[in-house]
Amino acid sequence: EIVLTQSPGTLSLSPGERATLSCRASQSVSSSYLAWYQQKPGQAPRLLIYGASSRATGIPDRFSGSGSGTDFTLTISRLEPEDFAVYYCQQYGSSPPLGDTFGQGTKLEIK
Amino acid sequence: QVQLVQSGAEVKKPGASVKVSCKASGYTFTSYAMHWVRQAPGQRLEWMGWINAGNGNTKYSQKFQGRVTITRDTSASTAYMELSSLRSEDTAVYYCARGPLLWFGELIMSYFDYWGQGTLVTVSS
What we know:
The complex is a heterodimer of chains A (111) and B (125).
Chain A (H helix, E strand, L loop, with lengths): L3 E4 L2 E4 L5 E7 L8 E6 L6 E5 L3 E2 L7 E6 L2 E6 L9 E6 L14 E5 L1
Chain B lengths: L2 E4 L3 E3 L5 E8 L6 E8 L6 E7 L5 E3 L7 E6 L4 E6 L8 E9 L1 E2 L3 E2 L5 E2 L3 E5 L2
Parallel strand pairs in B: 2-13
Antiparallel strand pairs in B: 1-3, 3-8, 4-5, 4-9, 5-6, 7-8, 9-12, 9-13, 10-11
């Protein structure tokens, strides 16, 4: 079973700064089947990145994803006020999913 | 534009069942899978199962096997999730989420590109 661990749990930054969020899998994620989501309070998650590095439709280019195997990163190049939210990673590509589907989340808060 | 509109909040007693609907519009319903994901208060997202809206085949998380049933009505472009034998720990927001049909010999788990607005299910005596 795959265990997904996100770090840090909380990240405190200021608008304009660069944010780096990590997602580590206990086993290799096949074919870089990893996605990232943003969730704001009271809202449904929104897909940001799929296939580890492909931006979803309408997602600004300040969001980028990288990584392979067991280590993945979501980078927000210059934080905008609307980027402060909780971010989740998701592994996919198996049937049925093996272990955790989602990480536990990273809360990005305003410093 | 793609929209997934879910049914309203529910309050149920322990041991009861709940059925949540998810009406899709703006795309060809049968060309995608529909997944159900839940989120208990303050907890991570938790995948429950999916239905291939084209052929009706389903796959469920082992955690919910035997308690969850996902169905669809293609004429209404609507998917349904029914959860039985409810307990207090099932209090959560339940989301439907669209996923592309990914194949690797068989249908495999995908990412979720559009989500419903969520349905709060409260289980309380």
